[in-house]
Amino acid sequence: MPHWLARMLRDRNVVMLLALGAGLLWGDGARWVEPAAIPALAVIMTIATINVKWGAFISVRAVLAPALTGIALTFVVQAFFMAGAAALFVTNDAFRSGFFILASVPPAVAVIPFTMFVKGDTAFSLAGTIGAYLGALAIAPLMMVALLGSGFIHPLRILIMFGELIVAPLILARILASTAIPARTGKYYGAVTNWGFFIIIYTMVGLNRAVFLDHPLSILPVCYIAFATTFLVGLLIELTGKFFRVPSGVLASAVLLGTFKNYSLAGGIALVFFTPETMVPATVSSVIAILYIVWLELRAKRRPPDPAAAGR
Question: pLDDT (tens digit, 9 = 90+) per residue, 122-132?
Fold first, then answer.
């Protein structure tokens, strides 16, 4: 395989776009791939946390502020805008339910690696993300029941699913981290994660191919809300942070925590509990998120590094 092609196939954004294109061109294959979507998500969650340095969380005082910030940004700020906009402007029941699910899930696990791309504060992103995931164990099921009703999604079933996709991967990651396995297999984690996302995105797009191609106008409200809850909410967080003179590294991390949801987890929950059409908001939002991280990376290249975040 040519070196340039191998490099492209390892690129996160290229793999995501390939998944999008494959889903639109050959949606029938998604039905065959669908059973692998949830296991792929569990693998991604395990890899994302396998290198977490839990010793940094010994000091409660050091991690409390970023953890509470992560919870507030994802479950209050972004969730409020997302659920509110869906309730007001989305008439399709499946799409509205999809946004309610998306509003209830924690931030994307990719927030941690994305922090390096936008010159953020890695320690802040790490504590904020872990705090949001721990908070999600209680907050997410309650939000889903409040927004969707217990008749649509049983609290016990959603707790079991969160145990499978959050608690179990965290435990497995800690077990693996105590062995020599990460040192031997770490070089493959990037590729495994990228192609795990390929499976999930391809499944979400492929199962909804008819919606995207046959009824494109029906997803316009979804596109508008996805754009607003990413680009506009990010701008709001940034302006607020600058007003209060938050250090640029911490602010960059806060923007990520407040704009990136775990689209794969939301899509998985929608797939298990609802219809494939309910995955459309997560699918569209994940595409918008790709554009947004590219935009943030370009802006970060023009910004000098934050001295406060150096060496973290």
Answer: 789 888 988 88
